[in-house]
Amino acid sequence: MRILVVNPNTTQAMTDEIGRVAAAAAGPGTEIETVQPPYGPRSIEGNADEVLAAYHTLALVADTRDRYDAYVIACYGDPALAACREVAPVPVIGIAEASFHMASLVAHAWSIVTVLPRVKPLLEEVVRRNGMEMRCASIRCTPLSVLEIEADMERTRQLMVEEASRAITEDGAEAILLGCAGLGPLDKWMQAELGVPVLDGVACGVKLAEALHHYGITTSRVAAYKRPEPKELVGCPGALTAVYERAASRW
After folding, report:
1. What is the domain count for the chain?
2. Three-class SS string for 82-113?
3. Counting Cβ atoms within 10 Å, is residue 67 exposed (0-12), middle (13-18) or buried (19+)?
4. Does 229 map to a domain?
5. What are the pLDDT digits (tens) for 182-220?
6. Is residue 30 part of a domain?
7. Structure pTM?
8. Is 5 helix (H, G, I), strand (E, B) or coil?
9. Inter-axis angle of helices 95-104 and 201-215, nearest 10
């Protein structure tokens, strides 16, 4: 099968790292391609960033909708996830949602450890949107910006383990979720340090995309993820215009 992993920001180094993590998680026979939109913010750390990234992510998925067996949206805010499910004929997995469900299979309660404190309200909303309030013990933040993660990996490791340890001892977390796609390379190292499951959303997304494909199921069209209603778009990318033009047909 072919999975397109989309990094919604426009930082090539992060896209490359996400690609390495996704490829390592993929099973035999799975081809991973990792891309980023041509336009948008270098990192996603607030609502305005997320809206800009979501628009260009949706356009990218629309432009490639007939080429892949599944998509993984590799940003922990799951930007454009519902919209991408409307336009893609194959499963679309968000890395936060994927990690929530996978962690809930191995832990009664889990905590997200992430970057700057300003992302906490965004992640709280993602947790609520997925109905996971009862499973989320806490969301703990570090002082790290998204683009600082790789700048000093020793500092990143230290800050992440410190906050994860507090989540376990103070909040009752039984598993730790890495709350940024750029943190993926830390999962197994942190798991060994902490002695609890540590889940990277990119790896979770790839494994769940494979499972859905091999099980032969895709997105329901009954209500929430119905195809867009046919209508004229003004000044939008051709790929999105084509989706709306085809909306009245079955695809």
Report:
1. 2
2. HHHHHHCCCCEEEHHHHHHHHHHCCCCCEEEE
3. exposed
4. yes
5. 999 999 999 999 999 999 999 999 999 999 999 999 999
6. yes
7. 0.95
8. strand
9. 80
